[in-house]
Amino acid sequence: MPPARKRPRTYDPAKTRKAVLAQFGNVREAVGTLTDEQLAAPTRLGAWTVRDLAAHLTMAVESVSRALERPEPPKAELNPLDYASATAAHAEAIDEGSRGLAAATPDLVALYAGVERRITEALAAAPQGRIIDTRAGGMLLDDYLVTRTIELIVHTDDLNAAVPGLAVPHDRTALATCVRLLADTLAARAPGGSTEVRIPPYAVVQCLEGPRHTRGTPPNVVETDPLTWIRLATGRLDWAGALDDAEVSASGERADLSALLPLMR
Fold first, then answer.
1. Pick from 8, 133, 186, 255: most CB atoms within 10 A?
2. Distance CA 183, CA 190 (A)
3. Is the pLDDT of residue 174 over 80?
4. Residue of 218, 263, 219, 217 whose CA lies nearest to 239
5. Contact of 139 with 78, CB cutoff 8 Å
6. Which alpha helices (DSSP H) does 43-140 contain, by range?
């Protein structure tokens, strides 16, 4: 008999909404302290400056408000596990939009304040079960908000990497949601039970075909910390480098995830 299909992980909508607003607030506060020199600094995201990155973060959140202004689609076609695969097709438009917004908006403080106000009001008015029209298709609002934690947490890490000493904090719920969604994406892409991937304290998943582990110590184990996992999953860090620097431990013949990473390209 084939193994039972696992149910998708569920997230508390109220906690997710609170986490998205909290993490955007963390970023807004930090961006408001940046000097013109810091905003002009390069990032690890190709040609983007810190200003471009800061503008992009507002777009990631504003997309919620704008989606709620559009007519509701007839059905939800996508779920959070589709997110990592859906982003690549829109990379060029996202790049152009982010850099264009940065160039056209010198006052980032006012931009962030307006985006925060609009999403707060939009979420307060949105009914339970609302479906929204995203770039990739119809999606439940609360599922889409789960994907916003990836945008916010990943790009918060990008900001911290670009500006020495900035140290924007990560909301715990937003960080946990981001880690879990990326871990579940890995498990969905490489289903199986031969390898256990541990990202304490937030997630443990099994993946890859092969002998299934049932009890005791698994024969194939990968373990890392939350931010290292996020960097691996999004291409900020490569597998070989993480192993060399002891940022990841991998034991067993099926503990090599290099062919599966990054999940988002």
1. 186
2. 11
3. yes
4. 263
5. yes
6. 50-69, 83-86, 91-104, 108-125
pLDDT digits (tens, 9 = 90+) for 17-61: 999 999 999 999 999 999 999 999 999 999 999 999 999 999 999
Amino acid at 248: V
DSSP 81: G
> Is the pLDDT score of 214 beyond 80?
no
Distance, in Å, from the CA atom of 119 to the CA atom of 121, rounded to the nearest integer, reads 5
The helix or strand, by DSSP H or E, that contains position 144, with its residue range, turns out to be helix 141-162
Structure tokens of 73? 């689609």
Burial of residue 219, with CB atoms counted within 10 A of its CB: 0-12 exposed, 13-18 middle, 19 or more buried: middle
Task: Judge residue 22's burial from the number of C-beta atoms within 10 Å of its C-beta, 0-12 exposed, 13-18 middle, 19 or more buried.
Answer: middle
Residue that the structure tokens 């006012």 belong to: 110
Residue type, 48: W
Rounded to the nearest 10°, the torsion over CA 197, 198, 199, 203 is 90
Q: What are phi and psi of 258, to 5 degrees?
A: -60, -35
Nearest CA-CA partner of 39 in 25, 52, 26, 30: 52
